Amino acid sequence: MSTPFARTLRALDADDFRVSNAVVLLVLALLAAWTWWLFAGRVPQYESTSTVRVEPNRFVATFPPRVLDQVRPGQPATLTLDGAALPARVAAIGLDASSGQVQIILLAATESSVQAAAKSAQASVEIERVSPATLVLRAIGRARR
């Protein structure tokens, strides 16, 4: 009569662990790819405003003072006119002395007849690109305050 232990050893000898080894390698590859993305990936961060004045051939958006150090001419922006998104670029930056707000002049990349008839306008300016790890650390820092 064979003992259960001997049957266990025979079963282990018969198993070659190919499938489980392949699964472990796949999981390690996915973990490595996710870790690379966490530290090397870049996620754009935007500052948005709905205070946009439509002028001939340009748009003037008003932002809070905190964006003054983060916005430079040539940065990409997005204008949303009555729900339609248009690519734009920052043309000039100024500080309104009376209100302390930052005035940013945006030029649309394409001329459109929608611009003149726009009833509502919003502007978003890409202020930085950071890694997802930076976003996590910022969120942790805010949660501890």
- Percent of residues in helices comes to 25-40%
The CATH class label of the largest domain is: Mainly Beta
Helix and strand sequence: HHEEEEEEEH
Number of helices, counting only DSSP H or I runs of 4 residues or more: 3
Which percent range describes the beta-strand content?
A: 35-45%
Tally of extended strands? 7
Strand order of the largest sheet: 1-7-4-5-6-3-2
**Distance N terminus to C terminus?**
69 Å
**Rg from Cα:** 28 Å
The biggest beta sheet is recorded as:
7 strands, antiparallel
Number of domains: 2
According to CATH, the homologous superfamily of the largest domain is: Efflux pump adaptor protein, beta barrel domain
CATH topology of the largest domain: Elongation Factor Tu (Ef-tu), domain 3
Task: Report what the structure shows.
The protein is α+β, with helices and mostly antiparallel strands and 145 residues long. It has helices at 4-14, 18-40, 132-143; strands at 43-49, 52-55, 58-63, 76-81, 84-95, 102-108, 121-130. The model has no long low-confidence stretch (mean pLDDT 86). The protein is elongated.
